């Protein structure tokens, strides 16, 4: 049986001269893209919130999109460009959508990005459940600490 070249451990490059290997490892900084860093920050915040409030976080679906839609719905009075939440209805679970590029443009480093993601997720969860954000996360809104 003939093996496909991609199933073998080492195979030749396109021109047949050298071995095709990755140029850098998956854990090196070059491998991590801005979208990958953002996704991992969102995943860590979901995990952190789920450990504190599993009954609030587990029924909610989280999504990341690059940019918000260009035409917001007309009935959405409080349209914010950093995130959006959609309440549950007709068999569809509640959803929170974070917009990556507007959030990355608001901050200067990864620490500020973590804090902005945390604040947006907590405020959207509070909005979905009709609570104050401070009830869900007492550190909500504290940027300088």
UniProtKB/TrEMBL annotation:
SUPFAM superfamilies for this protein: Metalloproteases ('zincins'), catalytic domain
Q: Which domain of life is it from?
A: Bacteria
Read off the InterPro entries from this record. Zincin_1, Zincin_1_sf
Tell me which species this is from: Bifidobacterium fermentum
What is this protein called in UniProt?
Metallopeptidase family protein
What Gene3D superfamilies is this protein classified in?
3.30.2010.20
